[in-house]
Write a structure and sequence with these properties.
Strand order of the largest sheet: 11-10-14-12-13
Distance between the termini: 55 Å
Oligomer: single chain
Number of domains: 4
Strand content: 15-25%
Structural class: alpha/beta
Order of helices and strands: HHHEHEHEEEHEHEEHEHEEHHEEE
Shape: globular
CATH superfamily of the largest domain: P-loop containing nucleotide triphosphate hydrolases
CATH topology of the largest domain: Rossmann fold
Helix content: 25-40%
Largest sheet: 5 strands, mixed
CATH architecture of the largest domain: 3-Layer(aba) Sandwich
């Protein structure tokens, strides 16, 4: 990723970020592309911008076709409503065991809106090559399926200046200057890992998102001879599940636990005041959630009229509860009863 883009190019990128519609963004990207110096150091950036331009053109054309179809009363609507606590999308190469193969553009759109991704691979051939191909396709569309060394989220704010949470290889002043050069004056920058100035600039321009992923290796009973070495290598960066869906061999409890761990989710059980038992269906929430945040999720009045909460562990219920406040951080397997004024 190139740094030190000329002021003209950075000014053009500001217009891209400010664009409200796909058509405006397309025009702004074309202007940005024309302002990028063309040399070896900018090859990847130029390639990405051209792909983004082509993608926007397709989206604009598809939108026009859908609008014409709606007006004429024909056409097919494609939409998956989110149900339940977790939405995962399954992707993979042909013949990896899925009932249907999604086109790249559809799979990418689904993955962008999902909580996580299951990458299904075929054990009868090199799983490393299959995975590299899939990761490359999604990376070009701004989606990381493997955790980057620095996962960066830039959240624009209306005031408060620039705040940085996390580790940097450079000084915070350098990062603030870079953001200001791109017209970002107020923002919260959250970093997982350790970020360089190049990582920050890539996050500004490429608008990457990270989706936690699980690699499911199917047809494991028909695996090629070198699979063990490849699995050991992949286990360094991915959660691995081995299955034989043809013979219906899968440990669903293990599968669920690995999903929960990979997505960093926990289970919280709720109990109504004066009820003897707690609900047997838990709420699935992100690790680190507080009592106050959960109260808001359940009902705004629970948060507004909050007095205190009782917390038990599932394995010790109904004994040994704790009385806590809004800032208490919940753990997997907690039982909560919220008392109001």
């Amino acid at each position: 990723m190139v740094t030190n883009l000329p002021p003209e190019a950075r000014a053009k990128w500001i217009k891209v970020m400010e664009a409200k519609s796909s058509e405006e963004k397309l025009r702004a990207l074309e202007e940005f592309l024309s302002a990028i110096p063309k040399h070896k150091g900018t090859e990847n950036l130029v390639h990405w911008v051209r792909r983004r331009i082509a993608q926007l053109r397709r989206e604009i054309e598809e939108k026009k076709i859908k609008e014409r179809s709606v007006r004429s009363g024909s056409g097919l609507k494609f939409y998956i409503e989110k149900e339940g606590d977790i939405q995962l999308v399954i992707i993979g190469p042909p013949s990896s065991g899925k009932s249907s193969l999604l086109k790249n553009t559809m799979a990418i759109a689904l993955a962008r809106n999902a909580d996580g991704v299951i990458i299904q691979l075929d054990a009868t051939m090199s799983i490393k090559k299959q995975l590299e191909r899939i990761l490359s396709i999604f990376r070009l569309h701004g989606i990381h399926l493997s955790k980057p060394k620095a996962a960066i989220r830039i959240e624009r704010k209306h005031a408060g200046g620039i705040q940085i949470i996390g580790k940097l290889c450079v000084s915070p002043e350098d990062v603030k200057k870079l953001l200001q050069d791109y017209g970002i004056r107020n923002a919260l920058v959250t970093i997982e890992g350790e970020a360089s100035i190049e990582d920050i600039e890539e996050a500004i321009i490429r608008e990457y998102v990270y989706k936690p992923s699980i690699v499911m290796i199917n047809k494991i009973d028909q695996a090629f001879s070198g699979i063990d070495d490849e699995v050991r290598e992949l286990e360094k960066n991915f959660t691995i599940i081995k299955t034989s869906l043809i013979k219906c061999r899968i440990d669903y409890d293990e599968f669920l636990e690995k999903i929960m761990k990979t997505l960093d989710l926990i289970r919280i059980f709720t109990k109504e005041p004066h009820n003897v038992k707690f609900s047997d269906k838990p709420f699935i929430v992100k690790r680190g959630v507080t009592v106050g945040e959960l109260a808001r999720m359940l009902h705004s009045k629970l948060y507004k009229n909050f007095k205190y909460a009782k917390i038990w562990r599932v394995e010790t219920f109904p004994n040994y509860f704790k009385r806590v406040g809004l800032d208490y951080v919940l753990n997997d397997g907690d039982v909560i009863e919220i008392r109001t004024q």
